[in-house]
Amino acid sequence: MVATNMAATNMAATSMEVSNTTTMEVQQGQETEEDVDRVSQQIRDTRQESVNSTRNALRALQEAEESSGRTMTQLGEQSEQLGRIERSLDSAQIHADNAQEKAGELKTVNRSMFAIHIKNPFNSTKKREKELEEAKRKAAEELAQREAIRHEEYQSKQRIDMAMGNGAYGRAQGNTNNYSNNGRGGPGERSAYAFENTAEDDAQENEIDQNLDAMGGYLARLKTSAMTMNQEVNRQNERMTHITSKTDNLHGSVTHNTALLQKIAKKG
């Protein structure tokens, strides 16, 4: 009788242990499913944030490239304007030199108006030869100056066209890097560590990859534009220094001619 009661007690205890173990396993299973759902939702939220972030970055890079394009266009227009200014200064300098020669002749005529002149044919020949050589020299200088200005404008246009994608190589060379999947492996590798994706999840990951590739292209082109703008600005600064020098020379010539003419007028 005692043995029968002990056996019943042991069976009841065993049944309770089994029941408790089953309950704990069910609770652990529920907790595991809740953890999986929570992590899965966190992944979806992070993925959506990444999509929004890449969209915003892409939009900002597009605006930056548009601004860069406008700046490059302005630099091109400024280069053409510098060329026009330089040509005008060269033309004005030519007229100033001619005016100086005429003022010298006028001074000579005014001083010797009542003097008796006997022309020396040898001196006349040498003078004509000298004048011819001087005319040739000036013509060569003018041609060299015009050619230098054209060359500067051509080089400036080439630099800007290449940076803006209008040159021989175009925009295709702007991005040679593939930024998508960096450090994340391919689709097969990702699936080994990821939860089962829905069609929406795959579409978001593809959009992130495409946005990263597009961002890489924008960054490469912006780098090229920045380097070109720096080179163009430095070169235009050199041209403006040259223009300043020409302006000073022209101012000196005009001042000298004015003073000479005023002196002749007083004597007259």
Automatic annotation (TrEMBL):
The gene is SEC9. Residues 82-152 form a coiled coil. GO terms for cellular component: plasma membrane; SNARE complex. GO terms for molecular function: SNAP receptor activity; syntaxin binding. Residues 44-106, 202-264 form the T-SNARE coiled-coil homology domain. Keywords: Coiled coil. It comes from the Eukaryota. This is Protein transport protein S9 plasma membrane t-SNARE. Belongs to the SNAP-25 family. Transmembrane segments: none annotated. GO terms for biological process: exocytosis; vesicle fusion. Residues 171-191 are annotated as: Disordered. Residues 173-182 have a biased composition (Polar residues). The keyword Coiled coil applies. The keyword Transcription does not apply.
